What we know:
Layout lengths: L4 H4 L19 H4 L6 E12 L2 E12 L3 E6 L5 H8 L7 E6 L2 E2 L5 H9 L1 E4 L11 H12 L5 H14 L16 H12 L6 E5 L7 H18 L2 E5 L3 H7 L2 E6 L2 E6 L1 H4 L5 H8 L1 H11 L6
Parallel strand pairs: 3-8, 3-9, 6-7, 7-8
Antiparallel strand pairs: 1-2, 1-4, 4-5, 9-10
Helix pairs in contact: 5-6, 5-7, 6-7, 8-9, 9-12
Amino acid sequence: xxxxxxxxxxxxxxxxxxxxxxxxxxxxxxxxxxxxxxxxxxxxxxxxxxxxxxxxxxxxxxxxxxxxxxxxxxxxxxxxxxxxxxxxxxxxxxxxxxxxxxxxxxxxxxxxxxxxxxxxxxxxxxxxxxxxxxxxxxxxxxxxxxxxxxxxxxxxxxxxxxxxxxxxxxxxxxxxxxxxxxxxxxxxxxxxxxxxxxxxxxxxxxxxxxxxxxxxxxxxxxxxxxxxxxxxxxxxxxxxxxxxxxxxxxxxxxxxxxxxxxxxxxxxxxxxxxxxxxxxxxxxxxxxxxxxxxxx
Length: 296
């Protein structure tokens, strides 16, 4: 299932039963949206590492206020796409707009605008090991609001720590003193430090047990609804996709081959999609949602 980049290329994508149209046309629904409805717009993106082409002519729109789950087999460049959107790597070609700003611009004002309006939770949390949780959360506050009094900055950090579901005393602890789930939440608190409207999450439930992963999923959905966040969420966790994602973008064949709610994605006739969503784990995740608390 995981190493399916080559497998996904063995057969061209198709659409069945009124489902998602394949390849470039899969973005047609997005193209019909008003510009104000689009938080992230990617067009013609090319990412290469030497002779290896990871993305070729990739298009993607992320709508404001949605949780978009991004999935794909090993080597399809999910994290590469996220890093390009964040301006952490320069693609070989294409354009990227984030909240109306050119994400590929080297202009300091443009870069600062994007940095102040985006929060990122990397897969490993990326916390500074020598700083307490509170000091980690204060890092972006110091960078972008350096004139804030120390007391106010501390109080803001404490607020974000609580918002991420951590106890107040976690603010004075080092990352090494926290469990894996608590470190994820500490990383989330830092990602929320600047009250960004756009949140990037890279495998947020990786390494968590099922109970911890489900709790983190509920936290993300609660924060998204309460704060009106747009969430770009890379995951391989089918439970997460079914539980909280409004739409799913599938990376295969060096581009985004489909973007739609999970019920429509399931019907796309592509080898990787069929293996992923209709295997044992996919059926279990689907059944869990059908039998969950919100089921009719």
